[in-house]
Automatic annotation (TrEMBL):
InterPro entries: Emycin_Estase, Hydrolase/PRTase-associated, UCP036794_erythomycin. GO terms for biological process: response to antibiotic. Residues 168-190 are annotated as: Disordered. This is Erythromycin esterase family protein. It comes from the Bacteria. It holds the Pfam family Erythro_esteras. SUPFAM superfamilies: EreA/ChaN-like. It comes from Nonomuraea mesophila.
Length: 401
């Protein structure tokens, strides 16, 4: 069987992975099975350089706060600020501390110094301002959108009205609201009014697109649209946090990935005339099939419950069809965590190369049975589901991390 598996695999290179993608691809998702393992963003950097230099890609999107990413993009595309500030202010989830992310931003800026403005690489975040400990206040996004529009349109709401409805930011960012819905302001009458205002502001942004694009510049309109999507998404997420139903956590997972999908849609539309986009995030956010998560200890009465939701990749893949491609990454050995021989990762560990790219369709054709699921050594790692691995367009395997 090993010889047959080798027929489905080749050493990892950007060209080897690109050869497995549909010709119509405009958005390529590269997943990682665990956060905080530098081997995966390092591989991402290598792939992105190939895609830029040989496949016409002109942008990248990371699983990071879309608002914070505006600062990184300003540095990458416009040379505004310095690298240290771009890393400290332009990332969420602690991603600014990653050496691979720093190298990505440095390389993109250096590449852009040799390019005319219309060909420069752009940097995007596609996550909302969300952390495991809670969600950000909607104030920055909502007031920034209001400021953009009020400079050019007569609005029926003042900043003072918004500030009064928003109240103290501490109400929105209270970590206790993560587990106690009664601590969240997301379903108060004031929050309900804010959701209507955010919706109306976004409608005005759309209705006056020609005028506002000329007044703000295309990049200015893009920033306003990021504020609009984020304000609406955050208010929706806070309403979910205030939900007392037992399905609350699953609803929040759905809302987050729906926000991610909307951001990816907007990025693809913005980049349509320039080139495809690489998006890098956890496999669970990019896979084409339904995502699931067995809640570990520490989630109180929810521990041991399996949550299921449609990933951003599944949502955007439905919209884009064969213009969305997904490459799932996984690994063999990490320290004492060695895969069992009958698992997918155990079978792939017999390959001779330290890094390989595998055609999942050919792999499924040569296997005489569906491999057993790998049991993770800890909750930070999500192994691939062997039953749905063939839905990916490519598999990337690192033998040892």
């Amino acid at each position: 069987m090993t010889a047959s598996i080798r027929d489905a695999a080749r050493p990892f290179t950007g060209a080897a992975l690109a050869s497995l993608l549909p010709p119509a691809t405009r958005l390529l998702g590269l997943g990682e099975p665990a956060h905080g393992v530098e081997a995966f963003p390092e591989l991402r950097n290598e792939l992105f350089r190939h895609l830029v230099e040989h496949e016409g890609y002109r942008s990248i999107a990371l699983e990071s706060d879309c608002l914070a990413a505006l600062a990184t993009d300003a540095y990458v595309a416009g040379g505004i600020g310095v690298l240290d500030d771009a890393m400290s202010r332009g990332f969420s989830h602690g991603l600014g501390a990653s050496p691979a992310n720093r190298e990505l931003v440095r390389w993109m800026r250096a590449y852009n110094e040799q390019c005319p403005p219309h060909e420069r690489l752009r940097f995007h975040g596609f996550d909302g301002p969300l952390e495991m400990t809670g969600a950000a206040s909607p104030r920055p996004a909502l007031t920034a959108l209001h400021d953009c529009l009020s400079a050019h349109l007569d609005l029926p709401w003042s900043r003072e009205t918004l500030d009064e409805l928003l109240g103290p930011d501490e109400r929105w960012t209270d970590p206790a609201a993560t587990t106690d819905p009664t601590r969240s302001p997301g379903r108060t009458p004031e929050a309900g009014r804010l959701r209507l205002i955010a919706d109306d502001l976004r409608a005005l942004l759309t209705a006056h697109t020609p005028h506002l694009t000329a007044a703000l510049s295309p990049d200015g309109w893009w920033r306003a649209d990021v504020y609009a999507r984020t304000a609406a998404g955050l208010l929706r997420y806070h309403a979910g946090m205030a939900d007392i139903a037992p399905t609350r956590v699953g609803t929040l997972m759905c809302l987050r990935d729906a926000m991610m999908a909307d951001n990816l849609d907007a990025i693809v539309a913005r980049e349509a005339r320039r080139g495809p986009t690489l998006v890098f995030a956890h496999n669970r956010h990019l896979q084409k099939d339904r995502s699931s998560w067995l809640l570990p200890e520490g989630w109180g009465p929810l521990a041991g419950r399996t949550l299921e939701w449609w990933s951003a990749g599944a949502i955007v893949g439905t919209r884009l069809g064969d213009r969305y491609a997904f490459a799932a990454a996984t690994f063999g050995t990490r320290g004492s965590d060695v895969p069992e021989p009958g698992t997918l990762e155990g079978l792939l560990s017999a390959l001779p190369d330290a890094r390989a790219v595998i055609d999942p369709v050919r792999l499924a054709a040569v296997l005489d049975r569906t491999p057993a699921p790998r049991v993770p050594a800890d909750h930070t790692y999500f192994p691939l589901d062997p039953a749905t691995a063939a839905q990916a367009d490519a598999l990337v395997f690192l033998k040892d991390i």
